Amino acid sequence: MKPNVHLLLPFLASALLAQAAPLTATTAVHTAPDESSLTITVLHAGAEPVAALSMAPAGWTAVELAGPFDVYIRNGDIMKSLDPKVGASAYLTPKVGQPELTKIELSDHTNITGLHGKFTRVSLEKKIVGYIHTAGPAAYQSPITATTMATTSTGAPAPQLMDAAPVTPIAYGVTTAGRPAPMVNLGDGGASTLPRLFQGKFVSTRSAFKPRRPYDWALNDDAGSRYAYVDISKLLLTDQIEKYVGHTVVVYGAAKSVPGGKDIVIEVDSLQLK
Fold first, then answer.
1. CA end-to-end span of the chain, whole Å?
2. What would the pLDDT profile of 36-69 be if each residue is shown by its tens digit?
3. What is the model's pTM?
4. CA angle centred on 37, ends 32 and 39, rounded to 5°
């Protein structure tokens, strides 16, 4: 006689939940039951993962991640309503050719939070199933080590460990309240022109009563003074730019002098809300 699947479900759920004991070590959550697969997130020791009703091979446990997740969607999959298309692929990093994390479904809640060249950064609220190694898990590696190994073995970096650009750990424009932003020195023409992080209030320079500025957008410091223009020509989805006006943003790009003047302009590679 075949067992009644419906009667077995409660027991299956109980068995899965029993596996979700507090973790004894920092553990990576993978997109597949394979240590070479992408890392979705990292759970710290003491965390109690929620077991998912999904099959997993011996030595692995399927867990449910609630989100929200920072994902990247190709600009061509963003509609004029600024919503992702149903069925669009969502990735963990803005890289071409990487495996997808999930596909967008009609019930998913999304919110655009940044622009990254050919990709749009989106905050995605949905439940995603991941996998943790439960049979003698190896110690979690540092982001630098794990990123190097993932890139070497799979050709695609572990997303959450590679999300931040390799920049100098300084965000220009961050000051104490009421004080101007620090000056950006461009005199050496070398290291100063390398891409780095800048922070400030994103504002429009356009005005019906003033001459047109060299660039339509700028960053203001905490005192409300402009300290740099921003060139967004590298951002392909510029019809979304109004979303950032009046908000504090973090941009990643290289600063250079504006020809024929003392002002500087940041050539933006990526832009996101702080």
1. 60
2. 888 888 888 888 888 888 888 888 999 999 889 9
3. 0.53
4. 90
